[in-house]
Amino acid sequence: KQEVTQIPAALSVPEGENLVLNCSFTDSAIYNLQWFRQDPGKGLTSLLLIQSSQREQTSGRLNASLDKSSGRSTLYIAASQPGDSATYLCAVVGGTDKLIFGTGTRLQVFP
Amino acid sequence: NAGVTQTPKFQVLKTGQSMTLQCAQDMNHEYMSWYRQDPGMGLRLIHYSVGAGITDQGEVPNGYNVSRSTTEDFPLRLLSAAPSQTSVYFCASSRVGRLSSNYGYTFGSGTRLTVV
Questions:
Q1: pLDDT for the residue B40
Q2: Coil, strand or helix: which one is B85?
Q3: Type and span of the H or E element at B45
């Protein structure tokens, strides 16, 4: 059974810091990995999708990497801003096309 | 705008009542699914469908029914609401098949359900 874990569970940093959020999964046979952002009381917004054949994806200040063999992904946020405050979720898709979520990292960036 | 539409956004039910949460997508996605999100439990899969006429159970299916008569719609029915079903419900859609690695999931904005 695929299990996805995110570390840390919560993070509070001053504005301007570069951040690394970690995601690990137990079954390396995945099709892709997706990072989402969720603001309090809101839905999920897709940030980045990494296909199984890719090593990383970039969008603005966000960079996500994928190491299938070790079952790990990292989300790098450069020059963090208070507007980045949210919960970040990673999720993997395997052979059943089911999306399995991690536990999330709650990020707070203070001015 | 293309996407996943969920209705209603908020709902309060009394124990024992039934209701249907609606989900519709206009992206011609084959795959649709329902999740519930609870504090400390994360997002858990309730039911999913890989195409019209095909549904299957996820991790927490008890107390819920689904059907998929069209590609666009995937309603979730609560048969007899219980306080344990108080949660936020999300519908999601995606492509399936051997090219599915090229596509991500799109989520609706959620339905916040309270059962009293």
A1: 79
A2: helix
A3: strand B42-51
